[in-house]
Amino acid sequence: MRRIAILALEGVYDGAVGSALDVVGMANERALARLREHDPGARASGAAWEAHLLSAKGTAVRTASGALLGDVISLDQAARSYAAVFVPAFAASSESELERQLAALGAETKWLRTQQSRGAMLVSHYTSVFILAQCRLLQRGPATVPFTLERHFRRRFPAVALDLSRAIVGGDDAVLCGAALSSAYQLCWRLIDRFSSAAVAQRMFHELFFDSGGDGTVVVPSTRKHNDPLVDRAQAWLAHHLAAKVSMAELAEFTAVSERTLLRRFQHALRMTAHDYLRGLRLETAKRGLEMTRFQIDKIARGVGYGDTAFFTELFKRHTGMTPSAYRRWWRGRRRPMEPRRAPARGRKPGQ
């Protein structure tokens, strides 16, 4: 039996808590179904996962919608250790409101640190990433936050590295962060993927994400690493404006430098122009769309900023050597298991 703790703060989003409970429920269903294939008596073994809803004092928690979450366990009554702790996002209408939530942390800080020291994987997203940063639990690697909270986070926690080029950051045994409020399903699935069998995780992945377009991760073109924070901010801005008409003047204004300086810094850090980087980013993201969705080519083209499908197709072909349709066929073919060759019928030569 593995346990996951869901640590709810005041103003927690109902959907974030529900996502965690949904995924745990699905994992139990799939895990037991797989066990029953081999052992009808597996039903008596109980669920593979157990979710505990926690709050600092064990009192009911009011959610963002105004509802009350009951059946909450206090931190003192919680299990000694958990395989994972999920801190769902909470509503904060302003920076001052977010700061109030951080200042109110008490027993949660010590408890989260203790859980990490005992091997729990810590998971947060959207506003709750600030909680892990406040508890000094983001020192081992980069984190991610929504683009709208980036400036506040950098001012508040300048020592924590941010990677805004990806929707989800982490995946090791320590910490997993998601930028979007809607990433709760993705994050909780990754927990199941981390601890469950490949068969269970793959089945859940298809049910949760396949028809809706995969896991939503922003794909970044391969470039050499750099240490230029200005270029890092520019890359993050471009990743969040793929579908828009982008001008270098807007990007220069966001980074508070001249277009000439922006071009020079990009060239030095990435050995390419900002235009080249954006084109690569768009085309790599389009590849992911072709791989993970059933969307029409024109829809994928519009999603990465190309209203002219013919122009997009020409760029894509130059980038990959294949048209978008051919790339999708190739990708599906390489993922399909090889079929055994059939022996030719007696009296016929192969190929006849």
Describe what this molecule looks like in 3D:
It contains 14 helices and nine strands. Helix 1 runs parallel beside helix 6 (184-195) and helix 8 (229-239) crosses helix 9. The protein has helices spanning 14-38, 95-103, 107-117, 129-134, 150-156, 184-195, 198-209, 229-239, 248-255, 259-270, 274-292, 297-303, 309-320, 324-335; strands at 2-7, 49-55, 61-62, 68-69, 73-74, 84-87, 121-125, 168-170, 175-178. It has 352 residues and is of the alpha/beta class. It folds into two domains: 2-212, 3-Layer(aba) Sandwich (Rossmann fold), CATH 3.40.50; 229-335, Homeodomain-like (Arc Repressor Mutant, subunit A). The strands form two sheets. It has a seven-stranded mixed sheet, with helices on both faces. Strands 3-4 form a two-stranded antiparallel ribbon.
